[in-house]
Write a structure and sequence with these properties.
The structure holds two protein chains of two kinds. Chain A is mainly alpha-helical. Chain A has 14 helices and no strands. Chain B is of the alpha/beta class. Chain B has helices spanning 47-55, 76-82, 98-107, 110-115, 118-131, 147-159, 177-191, 204-210, 228-231, 234-241, and strands spanning 7-16, 19-26, 36-40, 60-66, 69-70, 83-86, 165-169, 196-200, 213-218, 221-226, 245-249, 255-259. Classes of the chains: A mainly alpha, B alpha/beta. The complex binds adenosine-5'-diphosphate and magnesium ion. Adenosine-5'-diphosphate (ADP) binds next to strand 2 and helix 1 of chain B.
């Protein structure tokens, strides 16, 4: 009888272990599949555009650039490629920033856009342009991003202070974030009045959120920030997962939660601000990317972070394609497309939260 | 050697910003390894606050002595290695499976992270599920668990690091009779490995049935700290809980609190 039970137990354990291993493998496969989809979407993104190039033209331009005529070369390398790459990179940056924010603030509605981090970064960037701030020896792009970062960081500190002060009511934090969005949007509108026409054009472009001004320098800078920041994000995976089990639990494990949070907020600001500085306010990617990733791989952050990264890139890349196709002959600002995708998800999440509490 | 690993609390004061002194100058007798000490007291007596201050989640003054050293002065990591705390309230809406949560509970600790490899951690997680007889929950998403099952998983998360001092905040409050008994048996077994266990029990009868000693907390102080039978007397229950009750001995020799018929006014 007791031996029978032990045998049963052994069998049950074996089965459970197999299920667990299977689950882990499945998660890796899902991430791989999304990554491949990203690549495919990226190719489509390059192929689509107002000047109709054939797929063959594009591929010749990509891989044997010397043999094609220069007009196609220019379109592919100077316009399409930067546009498509920038879509991937901003998708990555915003989505990872959103994922980190959701865990750190313990709020699935958190993202750089919904809580006003993007808006404050936009304001910072606009301010730098309008005031014409320059730093000797540093390119204007960097100065603008730096100021965007400073404002983004200020706003996440504010958000964190609010979350701690109100003891993290999910709803009230979101409302506070929306208040930040309104405030900074109003401030940006104010800047419209004092800006010179040239500066105004640039500032308006931010408020729209568009990939149209992507260039290789910006791509390099954003890629650099991602490459520098995301490894730290990944290294924090275990602690982030533990934080999901409750702040008390995490602190009990010996994690210095405050310091840990602060470092995360720093990463969030860097990622969000750099992308905002280059492409303007593109909404909801930081909400939608992590959300889809969570449904696919769960919240073991070892999988969830990379999954958010590639999902964000994929959604953004698809949005970029859609921005060229939705209204034939017109290139929509990509921010409009992401809002069309994002708002329903946002509303759905709010309703789900309501049902739970 | 005897008495070496015992822990006692001396003049401990702890509270929250704006609410200092929830725990006031609290002193206990030594808590012996291998023994279960029940912590009881009315709502808001400060039971959770006491456990949190021992864990180091909230600042505290005074002394918690073990091996002639003050645990309060330990660096965060050393203290975390020694003590594990199971919170009273468990977060909800977590997309993790049970095993994943256990593995993370071990791997996230700055201490264990360095020393323990993933396959070893995984093995420990499954060993624990086996010991606690909840293997069937292994790959269940935590979100799908019942309140009682969550509590079991939370207990597992606290125990997986095999702490010397285990602090449990009402671990049985959502459990049915079967799992109440299962958990208390399990805790007893863990205690017998020479661990120190302080467990908040709302149900005085459970304290009488399972604990080796009991601390009755009242207004942030120890009202009485003794064998459970000596702590939960008629007088103590009247004074601390404002309830008239009889203490009766069951056929099997255990004590039980029977609340008297209360007059309505
Ligand atoms: N985070 C907190 N901030 C401020 N006061 C708190 C906090 N947690 C508990 N308290 C207060 O401390 C007192 C004791 O609470 P607690 O230790 O949770 O009681 P118990 O666990 O014995 O029911 C209560 O008056 C409660 O309002
Ligand atoms: Mg309590």
């Amino acid at each position: 009888m007791s031996i029978q039970r032990t045998d049963n137990q052994k069998a049950e354990r074996k089965l459970a272990e197999q299920r667990y291993d299977h689950l882990q493998k499945k998660r890796l496969l899902i991430i791989a599949a999304i990554t491949i989809s990203c690549f495919i979407s990226f190719c489509f993104d390059i192929v689509t555009g107002p000047s109709s190039l054939s797929v063959k033209d594009v591929f010749t331009a990509l891989f044997h650039s010397s043999s094609t005529d220069t007009a196609i070369d220019v379109i592919v390398w100077k316009v399409r490629m930067p546009y498509a790459l920038m879509a991937l990179l901003t998708g990555m940056a915003l989505s990872v920033a959103g994922a980190e924010m959701q865990t750190i603030l313990n709020n699935p509605l958190a993202s750089p856009f919904t809580l006003g981090v993007s808006a404050s970064a936009t304001f910072g960037a606009a301010l730098a342009i309008v005031l014409g701030i320059t730093l000797p020896g540093i390119s204007a792009n960097w100065v603008v991003s730096l100021n965007a970062f400073l404002f983004a960081f200020g706003s996440v500190l504010l958000l964190q202070a609010f979350a701690r002060w109100k003891n993290s009511g999910v709803g009230s934090l979101v409302l506070f974030g929306i208040a930040l969005v309104f405030t900074f949007n109003a401030l940006v509108a104010l800047i419209h009045y004092i800006a010179t026409p040239e500066a105004l054009q640039q500032v308006v472009f931010w408020s729209m959120g568009s990939l149209a001004r992507a260039n290789w320098e910006k791509i390099q800078m954003l890629a650099l920030v991602i490459v520098l920041v995301v490894p730290f994000t990944m290294a924090s995976s275990w602690k982030m997962t533990a934080l999901r089990l409750g702040e008390e639990r995490a602190a009990g494990l010996g994690i210095r939660v405050n310091r840990f949070r602060f470092m995360s907020l720093l990463r969030i600001s860097l990622l969000a601000a750099t992308s905002v500085a280059f492409v303007g306010t593109i909404g909801f990617i930081g909400l939608v990317g992590p959300h889809i990733a969570r449904m696919l791989v769960g919240e073991d952050h070892r999988y969830w972070f990379p999954a958010s990264l590639v999902t964000g890139a994929l959604v953004m890349s698809l949005a970029s394609i859609a921005s060229k196709l939705l209204v034939p002959g017109t290139l929509l600002p990509v921010g409009i497309v992401t809002a069309l995708i994002g708002v329903p998800v946002f509303v759905y999440l709010i309703m789900r939260k309501d049902r739970q509490s | 050697m005897k008495g070496q690993r015992e822990v006692y609390i001396k003049q401990l004061t702890a509270g929250y910003p704006g609410k200092p002194g929830i725990i006031r100058q609290l002193t206990t007798r030594p808590l012996q390894p291998g023994m279960i000490t029940a912590l009881a007291g009315p709502n808001a007596a400060g039971k959770s606050t006491l456990l949190k201050s021992i864990t180091g989640l909230i600042p505290a003054h005074g002394e918690i002595i073990m091996d002639q050293k003050n645990i309060l002065a330990f660096p965060v990591l050393k203290r975390a290695k020694l003590i594990s705390y199971m919170p009273q309230y468990l977060p909800f809406d977590i997309s993790l499976s049970v095993v994943e949560s256990l593995v993370a509970s071990l791997k996230a600790s700055p201490l264990d992270q360095i020393s323990t490899k993933l396959p070893e951690v995984k093995k420990r997680a499954f060993d624990l599920l086996e010991e606690m007889d909840i293997m069937h929950l292994a790959t269940e998403p935590i979100n799908n668990l019942s309140g009682g099952q969550r509590q079991l998983v939370s207990l597992a998360q606290a125990i997986i690091r095999e702490p010397e001092i285990l602090l449990l905040d009402e671990p049985t409050s959502a459990l049915d009779l079967h799992y109440q008994v299962a958990v208390m048996k399990w805790v007893k077994q863990y205690a017998r490995r020479g661990k120190i266990i302080l467990i908040v029990l709302h149900d005085i009868n459970m304290a009488l049935r399972w604990a080796d000693e009991a601390i009755l907390l009242h207004n942030g102080k120890v009202y009485r700290h003794d064998k459970p039978g000596a702590v939960f007397t008629k007088e103590a229950i009247r004074e601390v809980y404002h309830v008239d009750a009889d203490i009766e001995s069951t056929g099997s020799g255990h004590l039980q609190v029977i609340v008297k018929d209360q007059p309505f006014d």
